[in-house]
């Protein structure tokens, strides 16, 4: 089915035609349509046009009104203030437009594909080998997954990349420590996998780090082990591969708990670019983009200076010949642009790394790897805070493990679901399943309903509340509609454009019609919090509608069918919108 023209687009077309007829030189002008408390839409571009034409704004607005063809779409238009146009949509137009969305057999609800899709390589969910994932990994994973869903839904070709930390000094340190302290990983430890294995590795990593920081001789041996790793020494490489494999099993278990799909081919860590590092450095040096400074290969920037006023360079290769993060990131850009044919590189990375990525992107531009046709963007995100407004920690002051946090969210949510289980007739299996959906949804929504660049407070009590801007509120709204549909008996949803709509019906219908433009805008700007805001308002309008407009006890059979149609379309929109945020909507709650 073709996409459905939104009511706002239809109004734009009518106004543009009226403007052109009134003021020929205004042909193609944007009437600047926006939502209004006084009417369905308000056009406020008349003022600028009048100024340009040296005309009286209110007189020009009156002339435009005379040219507007009221009827099929526009019920009424009136001049307001100094020259605004207040526009009211016809009830029939609202219902017919929604009926077209409802009839979309593709399930897209009339949402069009993006006009010019490309290939986006998105770098997100970047855990580290041999380390347990903590609350700091949450935002990159959740935001990145939502953006992936949105981009794919709008027709973009999306390539996922999980740039895991699987190379460098820490592995020489860990392997050397385990070689010298084999008793710290007994036979039983070697047999476990998943979370327990990762917990053991994390423990060993901390012990190795302590030894590395306090023992200069061990530090020297560990660094020699890094050289062995980079040279491909079989024993060292085998131990490293075991760490990577065990870590992946753990990563997959955490992502599965987050209800996120992660495929092994999508995981391309730092080690995946080893063979490109020397060439990257050679290309940068030969082109003059990078220069040698005190033995290191550096890129300098006029606007990046330290506290002493001296330039702070991006170090691509260290003076000892080792490669830093910049070399790996620049090699990844080369791979993504020239091998994966990306038109957009998107990095969902902590805001604290903004300077690093600014310098990396600028270096890639100077090298010609990024240009007007290939762009890179950091989707920076803020910090997860505790209720006290400080970075989220355990009572002992340690970083919160992501697995523990998710388990607690599911436990709290399951308790909330169980309270209403008997009333809605849930089985024990449904209680367990819904508890998982509600708990994980609560964690995701709390993150996604906040602008990525802002910090947010992690408050599980609020997250699993049935009241306020929470995923549970939205999930409950969806489940309420399913309950209504189950109780409808022989009555079926059907649009009746001939019916006059009550104010709450109009408000709900107009908001439903905005779904397509909201999705396209959110995907284009990488702002899932705007979709969350749209869905929360939709659920709120549904609540008002439910309170003011009886569905199954409406006055006529036609009104029953029309209201069933409205609530069913609302449920479908909630379901699709939540799915784009990576959140499930249970049928009963």
UniProtKB/TrEMBL annotation:
The keyword Cell membrane does not apply. Residues 9-89 form the Arginyl tRNA synthetase N-terminal domain. GO terms for biological process: arginyl-tRNA aminoacylation. One of its GO terms (cellular component) is cytoplasm. GO terms for molecular function: arginine-tRNA ligase activity; ATP binding. It is found in: Cytoplasm. A motif ('HIGH' region) lies at residues 127-137. It holds the Pfam family Arg_tRNA_synt_N. Gene3D superfamilies: Arginyl tRNA synthetase N-terminal domain (3.30.1360.70), HUPs (3.40.50.620), Isoleucyl-tRNA Synthetase, Domain 1 (1.10.730.10). Residues 474-589 form the DALR anticodon binding domain. Transmembrane segments: none annotated. It catalyses: tRNA(Arg) + L-arginine + ATP = L-arginyl-tRNA(Arg) + AMP + diphosphate. InterPro entries: aa-tRNA-synth_I_CS, Arg-tRNA-ligase, Arg-tRNA-synth_N, Arg-tRNA-synth_N_sf, ArgRS_core, DALR_anticod-bd, Rossmann-like_a/b/a_fold, tRNAsynth_Ia_anticodon-bd. Keywords: Aminoacyl-tRNA synthetase, ATP-binding, Cytoplasm, Ligase, Nucleotide-binding, Protein biosynthesis. PANTHER family: ARGININE--TRNA LIGASE, CYTOPLASMIC, ARGINYL-TRNA SYNTHETASE. Belongs to the class-I aminoacyl-tRNA synthetase family. Monomer. This is Arginine--tRNA ligase. The lineage of its organism: Bacteria, Bacillati, Actinomycetota, Actinomycetes, Kitasatosporales.
């Amino acid at each position: 089915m073709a996409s459905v023209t939104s009511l706002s687009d239809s109004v734009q077309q009518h106004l543009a035609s009226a403007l052109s007829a009134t003021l020929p030189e205004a042909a193609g002008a944007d009437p600047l349509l926006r939502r209004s408390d006084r009417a369905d839409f308000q056009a406020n571009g008349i003022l600028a046009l009048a100024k340009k034409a040296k005309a009286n704004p209110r007189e020009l607005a009156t002339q435009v009104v005379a040219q507007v063809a009221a009827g099929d779409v526009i019920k009424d238009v009136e001049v307001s203030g100094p020259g605004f146009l207040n526009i009211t949509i016809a009830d029939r137009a609202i219902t017919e437009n929604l009926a077209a969305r409802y009839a979309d057999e593709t399930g897209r609800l009339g949402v069009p594909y993006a006009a010019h899709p490309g290939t986006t390589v998105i770098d997100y969910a970047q855990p580290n080998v041999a380390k347990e994932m903590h609350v700091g990994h949450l935002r990159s994973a959740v935001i990145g997954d939502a953006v992936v869903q949105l981009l794919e839904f709008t027709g973009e070709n999306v390539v996922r990349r999980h740039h895991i930390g699987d190379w460098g000094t820490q592995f020489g340190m860990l392997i050397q420590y385990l070689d010298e302290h084999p008793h710290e990983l007994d036979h039983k430890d070697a047999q476990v996998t998943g979370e327990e294995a990762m917990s053991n590795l994390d423990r060993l990593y901390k012990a190795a780090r302590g030894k590395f920081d306090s023992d200069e001789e061990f530090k020297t041996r560990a660094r020699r082990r890094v050289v062995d790793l980079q040279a491909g020494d079989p024993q060292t490489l085998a131990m490293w591969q075991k760490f990577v494999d065990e870590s992946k099993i753990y990563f997959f278990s955490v992502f599965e708990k987050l209800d996120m799909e992660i495929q092994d081919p999508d995981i391309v860590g730092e080690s995946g670019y080893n063979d490109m590092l020397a060439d990257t450095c050679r290309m940068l040096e030969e082109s003059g983009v990078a220069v040698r400074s005190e033995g290191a290969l550096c890129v300098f920037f006029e606007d990046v200076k330290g506290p002493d006023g001296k330039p702070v360079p991006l170090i691509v290769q260290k003076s000892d010949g080792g490669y830093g993060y910049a070399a790996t990131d620049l090699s990844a850009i080369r791979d993504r642009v020239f091998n994966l044919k990306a038109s957009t590189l998107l990095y969902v990375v902590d805001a604290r790394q903004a300077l690093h990525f600014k310098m990396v992107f600028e270096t890639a531009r100077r090298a010609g790897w990024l240009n007007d046709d290939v762009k890179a963007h950091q989707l920076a995100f803020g910090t997860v805070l505790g209720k006290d407004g400080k970075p989220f920690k355990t009572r002992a002051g340690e970083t919160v493990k992501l697995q523990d946090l998710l388990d607690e969210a599911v436990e709290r949510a399951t308790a909330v679901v169980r309270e209403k289980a008997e009333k809605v007739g849930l089985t024990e299996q449904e209680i367990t399943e819904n508890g998982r959906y509600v708990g994980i949804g609560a964690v995701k929504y709390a993150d996604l309903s906040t602008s990525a660049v802002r910090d947010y407070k992690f408050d599980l009590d609020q997250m699993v509340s049935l009241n306020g801007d929470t995923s549970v509120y939205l999930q409950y709204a969806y489940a309420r509609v399913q309950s209504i549909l189950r109780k409808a008996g022989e009555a079926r949803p059907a649009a009746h454009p001939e019916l006059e709509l009550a104010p709450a019906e109009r408000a709900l219908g107009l908001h439903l019609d905005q779904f397509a433009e909201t999705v396209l805008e959110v995907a284009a700007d990488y702002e899932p919090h705007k979709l969350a805001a749209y869905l929360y308002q939709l659920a709120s309008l549904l609540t008002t509608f439910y309170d003011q407009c009886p569905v199954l006890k409406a006055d006529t059979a036609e009104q029953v069918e029309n209201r069933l149609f409205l609530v069913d379309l609302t449920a479908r929109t909630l379901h699709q919108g939540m799915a784009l945020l990576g959140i499930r909507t249970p049928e009963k709650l």
